[in-house]
Design a protein that fits this description.
Length: 112
């Protein structure tokens, strides 16, 4: 596509401007394509995920051990733990990879 754009011969200033804009967009599209490819191939650090889950587990266990036993504290711990579980870090990572793959496919379809 880039070669086809370079082969165009503009006749006036307006066409030269449009040709330059098309070349700039094509270069940006190529950079975006490579960036999406690079981001899709970088593996998610599983060690970070394991450490995060371990840290949260130790945190909530320590809160449960040292907090006074009353219904308000127990309800607060339950809501906080449920909130952290609701985040679903692996689900977010998987969803982000799916969306990146869909975006890459769209870019491939548009550029052809």
């Amino acid at each position: 596509m880039l070669d086809a754009l370079k082969a165009l011969s503009p006749k006036d200033d307006n066409q030269r401007f449009l040709k330059q804009q098309c070349l700039n967009l094509e270069v940006q599209l190529g950079r975006t394509r490579w960036l999406m490819y690079a981001q899709n191939t970088v593996p998610f650090p599983r060690f970070l995920l394991v450490m995060l889950i371990a840290w949260l587990t130790v945190l909530f266990v320590s809160f449960g051990i040292f907090a006074p036993r009353n219904p308000l504290v127990l309800a607060g711990l339950f809501v906080s733990a449920a909130g952290f579980r609701g985040v679903g870090i692996p689900d977010c990572v998987g969803d982000a990879r799916t969306q990146a793959a869909k975006a890459a496919e769209y870019v491939r379809l548009v550029s052809t």
